Amino acid sequence: MKRFFGDRCAWVAGVLIGLLSASAYGQVPLAQVPRYLPGYEDLSQQREKMSGQRDHLNALIVEHNNKTVPEDTPVAERLRLEGIQLREMMIRHVAASKDFNARVMAAETDFRTNSVKGKAPAWEDKEHPERKAWSDELRWAIAKNIGTLEKAKDITDFAPNYNKSLPLSQRLDIWASLFTAIAKKESDTRDSGGQLFDTNAEHRETDGQISRGLFQIGYNAAENPDNFYGRYARANGESLAELMDEANNGLNDPKVNIKCAVIMFATLVDRYGRIAGGPNRDGKYENGADGYWSTLQEGKKHEIQEMVKKQALAE
């Protein structure tokens, strides 16, 4: 007795093993489907089905490769033909995997391309052409989190005409105007000789932490990977600690600051269902994004509301 994949049939074993490793062990992994993509449910179901087919096919190949038969027998010939059939099945599965990955990539590219089209936020002007990249980053970050952000029950306090039936570009414009209004208030250093939208703005908080950049974010927001910011970020394929990169002053990079701000804002909306939850009985702000950004608190948010309403009503 000798193993089926002996000298006589080594070429079949080589082909099968090569395709198996290429498909199932890293060369053609099935693409993850981002939750924000249109058609997410259909694509996820297709991925799950293909993943099951891949596991089944791999099991058949392992079973086939472990069989032993006498040489030059009808059974050996049947196993040779079975090996060829399995090889053809794997080739088809690899091709289908590539097609699926291409569909996901094309959908993500289209979604990103469309998401960055819209009105220029308030920070863009002729004197600061570099801020166009900020706007693209902001709109893309909002688009990826739009499903969570739209859980905010009080968005109409800022944009009275807001509803989910509006075109995506218009909804992104409104959210971008809200974030830009927050950044305008948070990073205004003109009183100390600085400027609006100061990417190097710093403020020492009452707990001793230093808030930085456009949205005045502190590195302590990511120091614990198990806090709710970290959990939300990881659930959406991000890592705040890696984004912020404290060793290299990452929060002073406006695009990093923007991305982190949107993730943190979405985390709070996901948790509390409101942008500005207002104070609790103890006078503390712990029920919305106003718990992190004081510019959204009572007595301060009026200006932001007016800025966003002006943008929204102009749509």
Which features characterize this protein?
2 domains, single chain, 4 strands, disordered N terminus, 315 residues, two-stranded antiparallel sheet, two-stranded antiparallel ribbon, mainly alpha
What does this 3D model show about the protein?
A hairpin with a 5-residue loop joins strand 3 and strand 4 (210-212). With 315 residues, this protein is mostly helical. It has helices at 10-24, 40-65, 74-115, 131-144, 146-149, 168-186, 228-235, 240-244, 254-272, 301-313, and strands at 2-3, 68-69, 202-204, 210-212. The chain is built from ten helices and four strands; from the N terminus they run βααβααααββαααα. Helix content is 52%, strand content 3%. The protein folds into two domains: 2-115, no CATH class; 131-313, no CATH class. Strands 1-2 form a two-stranded antiparallel sheet. Strands 3-4 form a two-stranded antiparallel sheet. The model is unreliable at 1-26 (pLDDT under 50).
The biggest sheet, with number of strands, parallel, antiparallel or mixed sense and barrel status, is:
2 strands, antiparallel
Strand order of the largest sheet: 1-2
Determine the oligomeric state from the structure: single chain
Helix content: 40-55%
Overall number of domains: 2
* Low-confidence region ranges: 1-26
